[in-house]
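Slide 14.
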Amino acid sequence: MRSETAQMGGRARLSPEVRRGEILDAAEVLLVAHGGLPLPLEDLARAAQVSKALIYAYFPNQHDLANALLARRFAALLAAGLEDAAAEDHLFSAAQACAALYFDEVAQAGPVAHIVLRDPYMAGRIDPALAAVRDRIARRLARKARLTLRLSAKEAVAALSLMTTIPEEAGRLVHTGDLTPERGRELTTRLIGSSLGALTPDV
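Slide 15: predicted structure.
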């Protein structure tokens, strides 16, 4: 009987879970390099060293693939403590904690979540469970922003959306090697603090 490590076609036979992970690894790199969806399947198959048919076996369409990538990145953020960070009592500490986690995420994996969430290809196709995670975090921060900064609901959402670009861009520069992690963290902390300070109403 052949084992999991038996050679087939020059490659070891891998479990479905490991093979799926390899496809997602390659898809993350390709997505960041390509900058949008859908991904060229020929390039993905080559990078993952699998056939296009095998990719379709795991991900029947590219919406499924993109949602799997988003689920992976959300799982990493949640495992790092994003829920607890957003639940901090004070806006400043919650915003800084969430920004630090998102910076680390983008610095490590690139802006995968941003691309999937914002790409027109995924309009109306984001997994509802994943959208619920995004919305839950956003609501917690927006509620604190409305109370602390005395903003309307729309203003609070807009302010948080703009501030999200700070850790995202700093993380992106670290991911591409154009900024050191230390400098990226420092810039993220300073710019988030400055942004919140500028929005804080005079007493």
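Speaker note: The CA atoms of residues 33 and 110 lie 9 Å apart.
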